[in-house]
Predict the structure of GNAT family N-acetyltransferase.
Amino acid sequence: MAFHIWEGTAVRLRPIQSSDWEKFHQDGMDSEVARLNDAIYGPRSEEGTKKWTERESEKGWDGHNFRLAIENLNSELVGSISTNSCDPQNGTFSYGVSIFREHWKKGYASDAIRVVLRYFFGELRYQKVNAHVYAFNEGSVRLHERLGFVEEGRLRNMVYTDGGYHDVLLFGQTYEEFMARRGTHECTIQKN
């Protein structure tokens, strides 16, 4: 069986397609998910979501900063993952992941994160990944702990939502920490 770098044990990553608009629109109407991921924004029309997915589907590939759809191995769209703050000179990057509510607790987020880390560490020679997690997002805190991230700091009262201020936790993982936790199902990568 051929190895595909954009596929894990539970998900595969692919470009966002304009036909994905309806799932993203439905997800955008869930205020709890919006609060856990980023912030609650004003309502978006169906046409606005269609335009957003169309723009996402037309974006070119730079290899570093991207947003990809997450689908399970039955080809069902279950969420998205994006990378940001990519610094090739220093070898650091960050990411954000969002799984649609009906697909929570199925291992899709952790598998998508591992796929992205495998690419950044194994193909792009990055050294470290950083994740900013809202302290009230207990599921994301546990996810990062299970993935072997180290809590490196806390930014106090950084986010105002749901009537109060909340901390942001800073998690990090190095190439060496990732390699020490890798499963045998993944391809072999060497740091040059």
Q: What stands out?
A: The first strand starts at residue 11 and ends at 15. Residues 9 and 132 are 25 Å apart (CA to CA).
